[in-house]
């Protein structure tokens, strides 16, 4: 008996208030626009109409469910799924705005019915009020789930597409001689501000580690998908940039190429890759970010590593035949002499030794290499080959 009585009350409620849907929706929209600034667009009348339609549509289907709990909700669920997609495309960082709006519209609807029912001569018993409240809450949960699903799936697609465009932009920038027009078009689609200069930082996992993704600002393009992973840094000489890279790449071996114009990023990557090759072999220190231009002699000389070995055999043959410890001592001494004009006092200061010790070593070198080591015409070649050989054969790498 109670069920049939409740049903008659609810049917009567729907009969009375369905024709008032536009007014109910208007009050719901007014509550939203009063308290949710994000949904207020005074210069876009269509936007208010969309909100009005959404509120009217949702309340109208709720009336349908009151009359027939088995009514098909697929269409309204799809509508609110699409609304969730729209929220994602609007760039909302969460659904908090929509959830607030849904609560306001629901409260406005319930308040309207509660206040107007007596005026319409409708007596709504407490048990029916409870039934209405439970019904509207369950209904809002269904709509919220649809909105959340649309928002989540659309956000994932947006993120995937955005990251895909950023990867394509990085790939384009790393090509030799990329077209500036293509760069501008793709940068615009990724909200990437075009810098005047860039530098490429080649990165490599430290042996035995599984580093996290580099923690870098959004303007840095990260290319861990590449055969040679790297990051591209806009305006690399700006204040705080080096510190930022050292912090963000501290779990990686990282070598920064030289600063170049935007369309010449491939050159920076080339030198960064060369430097990373040396770093991976332990030929340059890797505790902090390696700056390629700070190791220019090694990078230039060791681009032809086999040639360094051949010239070393020709120019340093007698020295290289010595025991490892002795040949390293004399090679470092000769390099310091070449860089100091064979001034024994200056060399001694550089190597933290007594000048007489340096003179003794120079006599040893003369006995091994002859007067040719003083020849100005051959000094550059000798300097280069010594630098390259000492880099490739660091002291302690050989057994005595």
UniProtKB/TrEMBL annotation:
> What's the protein called, per UniProt?
PucR family transcriptional regulator
Q: Name one Pfam family in it.
A: HTH_30
Where in this chain does the record put each PucR C-terminal helix-turn-helix domain?
330-386
Q: Where is the PucR-like N-terminal domain?
A: 11-174
* Parts forming coiled coils: none
InterPro entries on file: CdaR-like_regulators, PucR-like_N, PucR_C-HTH_dom, PucR_C-HTH_sf
Looking at the record's lineage, which domain of life comes first? Answer: Bacteria
